[in-house]
Amino acid sequence: MCDLFLFFLLVRVYARASTPVFTSSSSSSS
Predict the structure, then answer these.
(1) How far apart are CA 4 and CA 20, in angstroms?
(2) Which in 4, 6, 14, 22 has the greatest CB count within 10 A?
């Protein structure tokens, strides 16, 4: 479970830094 959480977090952070446009979507989701 921990691995999954870490993986999800990493992917989210990576996508956030990779795509600035995705930030608004992620922020809204959060």
Answers:
(1) 24
(2) 22
At 24, the pLDDT band (50, 70, 90 cuts) reads: low
Q: C-alpha angle with apex 9: 14 to 16, nearest 5 degrees? A: 30
Residues 6 or more apart whose CB falls under 8 angstroms from that of 22 comprise 15, 16
**CA–CA separation, 1 and 26 (whole Å):** 22
Q: Cα–Cα distance between 21 and 5 in angstroms, integer? A: 23
Name every residue whose Cβ is closer than 8 Å to that of residue 27 and which is 6 or more positions away in sequence.
none
Question: Rounded to two decimals, what is the model's pTM?
Answer: 0.45
